Amino acid sequence: MNITLHQLRVLRIVAQKQSITKAAEELNMTQPAVSIQLKKMQGQFDIPLTEVIGRKVYITDFGLDVCGIAGKVLAEMEEIEYKAAAYKGILAGRLSVSVVSTGKYILPYFLSGFLQANPAVELSVDVTNRLRVIESLEENEVDFSLVSVPPTQLQVMEEMIMPNRWYLVAPKNYPIPDRQRLDKSVFAKIPLIFREEGSGTRYIMQQYFKQAGIVPRISLELASDEAVKQAVMAGLGLSILSILTLKNELRQKEVKIVPVRGLPLKSNWRLIWLKRKKASLIAQAYLDYVRREKATIYREKFSWMEEVG
Questions:
Q1: What class has domain 163-267?
Q2: What is the DSSP string of 83-149?
Q3: For 145-156, what is each residue's pLDDT tens digit?
Q4: Which of 34, 91, 94, 230 has the most CB atoms around its CB within 10 Å?
Q5: pTM of the predicted protein model
């Protein structure tokens, strides 16, 4: 048997993309070149690795087994390369992180110093909703996930990095009684803008309303915090948002915080990783960096949150 590492990479990408065209784009190869590598690899086996239905390429059960083994082989080869670099005093490797959409406001600050100190590190960041973040962690696709609401269905380790708070946000002209906190019952009366199903912000809101025994008036559902902010500023309703998303709007007085008993909702941003996962050299180095620098990063970049009432 004469299977090359290149052929293993091609098979894995084709399996992921279910398309020769998309795999070729990902691998920076021509479509015929991808097909040739697949054909050469198939020639090593009497059992089909792939099957074509319509325009999609599907991996057979046998092909999936081979892909699983290929992933382990390629990972071990990468580890050899990274260890060789480490012996030269160079920290090199791939760091992969999935992050809930609100986390995009903080993750860059917890990466920049590490990447500047270690330019040989390859970074992969996937910004998506909470459901997809947890899925990527469960499927062992990433080293870490950045979340504010940890999963309950997975055994994970975590490193707290900074606080998170959610406030009720209204348009700048929304009337608020002076020096008075509104009762929770206000949520049954005001139109609320929700994030889409699967988002961490929506989950936080739903848990809050469930515990308070309140059925909120949902006027609108949107797919991003930015869209929610624009809708609030346009007067389409109020929403509960993380303070991290509101820095500029509060300073420019485009929105205002509505004081409500029981708010702000509080949690913590945390890096989480699978308890059973063995950390790579690069993952351990990054975790050490976060533990060492998180207090300084918070003080220099996020202490403004403490000023919000």
A1: alpha beta
A2: HHHHHTT---EEEEEEEEGGGGGTGGGGTHHHHHH-TTEEEEEEEE-HHHHHHHHHTT--SEEEESS
A3: 999 988 888 899
A4: 34
A5: 0.70
